[in-house]
Design a protein that fits this description.
By secondary structure, the chain is mainly β. The protein folds into four domains: 32-116 and 293-318, Immunoglobulin-like, CATH 2.60.40; 136-275, C8orf32 fold (Roll), CATH 3.10.620.30; 449-546, Immunoglobulins (Immunoglobulin-like); 550-669, Immunoglobulins (Immunoglobulin-like, Sandwich), CATH 2.60.40.10. Helix content is 13%, strand content 47%. A hairpin with a 4-residue loop joins strand 12 (261-266) and strand 13 (271-272).
């Protein structure tokens, strides 16, 4: 029985992958979020009804003001505007002199070009802010953004504690809201916007509520923040089910950075420090409850009823795909692991630009791989910075141990930058406990470890010839500073041996140790390097091989009748860590010999066969033999033999004579 290798690309993973990544087309203009520009046609329409409250009702004039209007800024331009109203002061006003008691429509049709420009923060802005000339009013509480609420103040100060970088503080607030407030379209959150304090207490809301809480937290820290109303494109299934279309009203925030300007933060889209090209800005203000429309009329006994606004967007032309600025890599602690083992996946993100950049990382895995912590990791990278994110995964124990598996793992960003690696799973591969993996994650997860390199020399495997023998293993590790700054007070540990060094750029140091191992199997030695600014950890994996051993057993009926088929069940068990190689199993008896060959006994082997009754006697012997070696060049042959005795019986006088004849034949032949 040859052990098979099965390359699995599971249907479950194909489905997941197609839904999350392929459907968004990495390198296609169909990925609307990643375009540099869009030419859009926005139509906004509504109506109001005039009706009499008495027979003598009279009306002289009506004025309707529409405040949701796409003014021009650095990222959107109005190419054409059609409206019957008067455009002035970021609103459209509609006048009706001596109107009749009927319904009136109003609205506009605008051709808008949006682009992907962002206000970039290229340097650290100190927090807390000390000068807020002209923007102080955006730090004040409002009806829905109750930034003076004690719970909001407490949580915001908790998240900002120890931080002196404004972008880092804003990012911390945005990340917490995004990860802890559940996006939930229910009657409480969709019929009317809830207060920020309500959102904090109930941990739910839609984009407006999430934005209100974020803005309230920022204002409670003295950081000016606006609430922005607009429309954007979404592929959220909840929104599509509720509205039946992709374009929907949306709310996001803008945070003021001194000497830079107003920087966008969209918590529902995980866009921190920018917004994508699908966002059409219609208004910014102090509170989400600011009215979209306002009506005034001069009348006697006349009632005005207004109806909701309807918005629709059509894409007229698409721009070009934007090249991704960030660089993404993946590392797997052990490219090969055993069934049921834990493993560590590392994502490395590089920001080669001269501005801050936030990124959300997600890990896509097949259903046979369990992620033990939240999949999404959100990182903030300063100019030229590199950071790391970690996922602990566990391999299923339900996989068929008779196969080797090749499982794809993908890390991707909200902008669909992705990297793929493959994980091998099979018998005899390293096994890691959860504690082994947890000890490898730095205390500060985003700590960058690539300013150091480890180059360790040691035997990947060693052998012991008896249970009482100890294997002596030497480890020699060179640690090199591959960064551009001196690493001061660097604590190095190789196993239990530790020392503290200073390393200049380009210089290396050496640490050597020895360990003794008496137990066969996989073993691990930790190597760590740590100071105030960085932390790097790794596990050195090595095998201690014992002598390959197996054990034979057989399930044979104690009594067999002449004329019946004789069922034989054989079991070959591996009783050593080191699997026997080039195994030959031989079964002799009743005038025949049967052989099985196995290149490697990596798991217990069950063999079934049937023996012919024609050679049966009153007392019968079967010999089960196994031969194997250790797979080395020396190929020392090992052997195991077992004998099994069972009785035969006859049902007829004729069968009895045949069994006597078989016994006589065996006597004279042997």
């Amino acid at each position: 029985m040859d052990q098979k290798t099965h390359l699995f690309l599971y249907f479950s993973f194909i489905l997941f992958f197609s839904l999350t990544i392929i459907s968004q087309n990495f390198a296609s203009s169909d990925n609307i979020y990643q375009l540099d520009s869009l030419q859009l046609q926005l139509s906004v329409n509504s109506s109001f009804q005039l009706s009499s409250e008495a027979p003598s009702a009279k009306i002289k004039e009506v004025q309707a003001e529409l405040f949701l209007f796409p003014t021009e800024d650095y990222r959107q331009k109005i190419a054409q505007l059609e409206t019957s109203g008067l455009v002035a002061e970021n609103k459209i006003t509609y006048f009706h002199k001596n109107p009749t008691l009927t319904s009136y429509g109003y609205g506009y049709l605008a051709n808008i070009q949006t682009n992907s420009q962002t206000i970039k923060v290229t340097k650290k802005i100190a927090y807390p802010l000390t000068s807020l000339v002209g923007v102080e009013e955006y730090t004040l509480p409002t009806k829905k953004i109750d930034s003076n609420n004690p719970a909001i103040i407490s949580k915001a100060h908790e998240l900002a504690a120890g931080k002196d970088d404004l972008f880092e503080v804003a990012f911390s607030l945005a990340t917490w809201v995004s990860e802890n407030i559940k996006y939930d379209l229910n009657d409480l959150t969709t019929n009317s916007a809830q207060k920020a304090s309500w959102v904090l207490e109930n941990k739910q809301g839609v984009c407006d509520e999430m934005t209100s809480l974020f803005v309230a937290m920022a204002r409670s820290l003295g950081i000016p923040a606006k609430f922005v109303s607009g429309i954007s494109y979404t592929e959220n299934p909840e929104v599509l089910a509720a509205l039946g279309k992709n374009w929907a009203g949306h709310g996001w925030a803008e945070v003021y950075f001194p000497d830079v300007g107003w920087v966008s933060f969209d918590l529902a889209f995980n866009e921190f420090g920018y917004i994508d090209v699908t966002h059409i800005k219609l208004r910014d203000g102090f509170d989400p409850d600011e009215p979209a429309t306002k009506f005034e009329w001069l009348s006697d006994q006349v009632q005005l009823e207004s109806f909701p606004l309807t918005m629709d967007v059509k894409i007229k032309q698409k721009g070009q795909l934007i090249p991704e600025e960030l660089q993404l890599e993946m590392e797997i602690l052990s490219p090969s692991t055993a069934f049921g083992s834990y493993n560590l996946i590392k994502g490395i993100v590089k920001n080669p630009t001269n501005h801050y950049s936030a990124v959300s990382l997600d890990l896509a895995v097949p259903s046979e791989v369990e992620i033990t912590a939240p999949r999404k990791k959100t990182l903030l990278l300063s100019p030229q910075e590199v950071q790391e994110a970690f996922w602990i995964v566990k391999l299923s124990q339900l996989l068929d141990s008779g196969y080797n598996y090749q499982l794809p793992l993908i890390i991707y960003t909200e902008k669909n930058l992705s990297v793929k690696e493959e994980l091998q799973v099979g018998q005899g591969a390293p096994y890691f406990d959860l504690s082994d993996i947890q000890n490898l994650i730095p205390q500060k997860e985003e700590s960058y470890s690539r300013k150091l390199s480890f180059d360790c020399t040691y035997p990947l495997e060693t052998s012991i010839s008896s249970p009482n023998q100890a294997a002596n293993i030497s480890f020699d590790c060179k640690i090199k500073n591959i960064g551009d700054e001196e690493l001061v007070d660097l604590s190095l540990c190789l196993g239990s041996k530790c020392e503290v060094v200073n390393l200049l750029p380009g210089r290396e140091t050496e640490i050597v140790t020895k360990v003794q191992e008496t137990d066969p199997g996989w073993h691990y030695l930790a190597i760590t390097a740590k100071n105030k600014f960085l932390e790097k950890k790794d596990l050195l994996s090595y095998m201690v091989l014992d002598q390959p051993l197996l054990e034979l057993s057989a399930d044979i009926p104690p009594v067999v009748s002449f004329g019946d088929t004789i069922p034989i069940h054989l079991k070959v068990q591996k009783i050593s860590f080191n699997p026997p190689k080039n195994v030959i199993i031989i079964l002799r008896g009743l005038g025949r010999e049967q052989r099985w060959e196995v290149p490697e006994l990596s798991q217990d082997l069950d063999l079934e066969t049937n023996l012919d009754h024609q050679k049966l006697t009153f007392s019968n012997k079967l010999i089960l033999e196994a031969q194997w070696d250790d797979g080395k060049n020396t190929k020392k042959i090992n052997q195991e033999n077992k004998e099994f005795i069972f009785s035969g019986e006859s049902k007829t006088f004729s069968d009895k004579l045949k069994m006597i004849l078989n016994a006589l034949t065996n006597f004279f032949l042997n």
